[in-house]
Amino acid sequence: MRIGVPAEARATETRVAATPATVTQLTKLGYQVFIESGAGARADFPDQAYADAGAQVVNSDEVWGSEIVLKTDGPTPEEVARLRPGATIAATMAPAENPELVDQLADQGVTGLALDAVPRISRAQSLDVLSSMANIAGY
Q: Which candidate, 52, 45, 56, 37, places its Cα nearest to that of 16?
């Protein structure tokens, strides 16, 4: 199964949805990881670091054609249109505040996993992006 990690659309977004370390973990689990060329540049992860970790550094079309797509920010309407029917996207999406995105994902036949909707409980802290960002910020 292919996991795609695109470059983030917002020019001010410096995070990336996967690091070379997480790519290593995913490839050990048997996934093929496709990283868009330059996706990690704003986070100081060069393409070569991803390649050394086992990812394939590819163009944007190959990333968006993956079965699973990982992003930091929620997808733009243009990005949703690039997802293949049956794909899954995991990102922060604020579904309660962005019902248009939810509708567009449903119309496209895409499953959306809103990481910002994971409950803030002890059992889910490894998945909860709000706790992890608060921790980094000095919570």
A: 45
